[in-house]
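User: Okay, second chain of the day. Same drill as before: sequence in, structure tokens out.
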Amino acid sequence: MVTGGTAARNIVSKIRPKIIVSVACERDLSSGIADVGSIPVIGIINDRPNGPCYNTNVDVNALKKKLENIIMD
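Assistant: Same drill. Structure tokens below.
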């Protein structure tokens, strides 16, 4: 788990995971997905109660459901 797009890109380039689960704002999520190439990405857009990408939240239940779907398939 990392915070921020730059840190995520660095980790992905170092360890080349088989799959990525990402929680981010729309713009960061879409650019990050484009940057990882052929690695599958499960993307979840975060909640932004204070405006664009500031003090964001994640719907933990939505994240849990996505992870359960991955594990069950």
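The chain has one domain: 5-72.

User: Thanks, on to the next one.
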